[in-house]
Amino acid sequence: MGASDVNLAELIGSRICHDLISPIGAITNGLELLEMVGAVQGPEMELISGSVGSAGARIRFFRVAFGSAGDQPLGRSEVVELLKDLERASRVRITWNLSEPVPRNQVKLAFLAIMCCESAMPFGGEVEIATQGSAWTVIGTADKLNLDTGLWKGVTTGQFANKLSPAQVQFALLPDTASAMGRRVASETTATQVKLRF
User: At how many degrees (to 10) do helices 104-119 and 169-180 cross?
Assistant: First the structure.
């Protein structure tokens, strides 16, 4: 996959997320109106509201992770709010240790790295994102990790021995997107921790 393929993937991601976020938002607004008038209450309503909220959070996250991204800044509050919404439907807790706004394309790399970490944590865990100068570190920690060593070896080069599944696409996009930005991905894994640097 070359830089032009990355750009095409970003455009596809942006288009899909853009087209889905409006109807999800409309459903959310409709549910809020139903709650206000007391038309529907009970566990069914909670299930629907929770599912729609989860879908909306994932789409907003995917819009950054898979969509086209320039160097316009994203502020801490916007990123943290997005990640908190994402956490509600996840077993993974995410800590964003950055206080200053950062370029959207760098947040995109961090979000792809978060997805890589999540894939190794089927039973939950914690992900921490930090920077030192221009270098980013994303660390995932869990009592039990499910590591696919081929994926974690390939994430540094973008070359994989086996064909990737749709659930693993972040492992291919992270090194290619980083390369297009003049960065390289490094990874380390232990029995309880995964670490990505770029």
Answer: 150
